[in-house]
Specification:
Order of helices and strands: HHEHHHHHHHEEHHEHHEHEHEHHEHH
Distance between the termini: 72 Å
Structural class: alpha/beta
Helix content: 40-55%
Largest sheet: 8 strands, parallel
Number of strands: 8
Number of helices: 19
Strand content: 5-15%
CATH architecture of the largest domain: Alpha-Beta Barrel
Number of domains: 2
Radius of gyration: 25 Å
CATH class of the largest domain: Alpha Beta
């Protein structure tokens, strides 16, 4: 190519780029700080929590170990600490403070760089004024936690520090639900977890799990009637949704099963109650009951949360939690809003595809910023690029303590802020669009998707 042609080619490219820049509104200087301020000011809706009531929390040890109540224990074990040592010492009310520290010290050094570890440091610094957790600070941190754990500290941490207006709380015992008070004007909306119907592998186990309802059953129709009754009771109690965590022990690949097939398996379970059925033997009945439960969610117009992706704890089969297996349920129950939890880590691409293709599938990123902020940033941008923004929710603490919730809220805000700044800098979003998207994914979408009615 001669020099003149090369010059004209370069000039043409530059002209195209200049025209493209003119078509896009370039961000005004200072947009980074404006976005950060706007995201930090949003009053959050927390879509997924396992918080106990403040009254119950005040009966637990008030020292540095409360910052390790949740996922941090998994990382300690992953680092090589003996599981029994972690569980017995951290949860022991009679264990001395020094014993607790020396039990976790080595593991803490190795896991402090994980996002779980960052959450500990965020809570220690922001809530208790301790910059680090080490040999010199664990006693003073424990003293400050003990002083703060008084009636009203939930309001301080959730409402004031975390700026949360509502939390969706997961409860497991539907016959005698744990009462979660309305702490500090933070609305606690109850979601019931309906795993017990699907988790049996033997008739005796199933009977034992359901005996406290006071209703006997010996046939599949009677079991279905029992499920109908319990579901109706739960709705009457005011539950506003259902959650399934079955990916912890089985695949999410559910199939529609004929009643005759399910009944045949039920009768085999009943006729040989001491036999421990394999998963392959029990799966068709489990699938049948899962679809039964979804039909009730559709009947009562309850949104459904489903655990997808990484299972907490130590050792599990990650392929069980691939959300792609749920496709047949999405087809069959088009009237159910399926909220797939945890950004499906590491199956973010599959999740984006499902939410894009199915009008009744939504993305709930609860926990994901605690798992990996970089994954959350990467897939939040991909979700925004592929899925209508009204179907994305970006924050759920998924914690047992308010300190854990606070740490998760900071990480979630940071991931949203960084993602919005990057998308504005690249010219994909205008600043005004980024602010609108942030408000939707951190607050507005959750209110609509979960039918929340907020009170002062």
């Amino acid at each position: 190519m001669n020099p003149r042609k090369a010059y004209l080619l370069v000039l043409s490219v530059l002209c195209i780029q200049m025209l493209d820049a003119q078509n896009r509104q370039l961000p005004r200087p200072g947009f980074e700080q404006r976005i950060a301020n706007a995201v930090n000011a949003i009053r959050l809706i927390d879509t997924h929590e396992h918080l106990m009531s403040e009254k119950e929390a005040l009966t637990n040890p008030a020292d540095f170990s409360c910052l390790f109540t949740n996922y941090q224990q998994s990382d300690l074990i992953s680092s090589g600490i003996i599981p029994e040592k972690v569980y017995n010492i951290l949860k022991g009310k009679e264990t001395s403070l020094d014993e607790k520290w020396f039990a976790v010290k080595e593991g803490w050094v190795n896991m402090r760089a994980t996002a779980y570890g960052r959450s500990v440091l965020i809570a220690a610094k922001d809530l208790y004024g301790i910059d680090d957790l080490n040999d010199k600070t664990y006693r003073e941190l424990s003293n400050r936690i003990r002083d703060a754990h008084k009636p009203g500290y939930y309001e301080t941490v959730l409402k004031q520090k975390s700026k949360i207006d509502a939390c969706l709380i997961m409860e497991y015992n539907t016959t005698n639900p744990r009462e979660v008070e309305k702490e500090g004007n933070c609305n606690f909306t109850r979601f019931f977890v309906y795993d017990k119907y699907c988790s049996f592998f033997g008739y005796n186990k199933m009977k034992a799990r359901l005996s406290n309802y006071g209703i006997e059953f010996s046939t599949l129709p009677q079991l279905e009637s029992l499920i109908d009754s319990v579901f109706a009771m739960d709705v009457k109690k005011g539950i506003q949704g259902a959650k399934f965590g079955v990916a912890y022990y089985r695949t999410l690949k559910f199939e529609e099963v004929p009643r005759a097939t399910a009944n045949s398996i039920f009768e085999k379970l009943k006729s040989d109650p001491d036999h421990l059925f394999t998963f392959e033997e029990a799966k068709p009945l489990q699938d049948f009951i899962f679809f039964k439960l979804l039909s009730l969610c559709e009947k009562y117009k309850l949104p459904v949360q489903i655990h997808t992706g990484l299972q907490t704890g130590s050792g599990n089969e990650i392929t069980n939690a691939n959300p792609a297996g749920l496709a047949k349920a999405f087809f069959k129950f088009s009237g159910v809003r399926f909220c797939l939890l945890h950004a499906s880590y590491p199956y973010g691409g599959e999740l984006a595809t499902l939410a894009k293709n199915f009008p009744n599938v939504y993305i709930d990123m609860a926990w994901s910023a605690l798992i990996s902020p970089s994954y959350t940033r990467r897939y939040l941008q991909e979700f925004i690029e592929t899925v209508p923004v009204n179907k994305i929710m970006a924050f759920g603490g998924d914690s047992q303590t308010v300190e854990g919730t606070y740490g998760a809220s900071i990480l979630a805000r940071e991931t949203v802020t960084t993602t919005m700044i990057q998308m504005v800098r690249e010219g994909y979003l205008e600043e005004s669009e980024a602010l609108e998207v942030s408000a939707k994914i951190l607050r507005e979408n959750a209110i609509k998707i979960y039918n929340l009615k907020l009170t002062d």
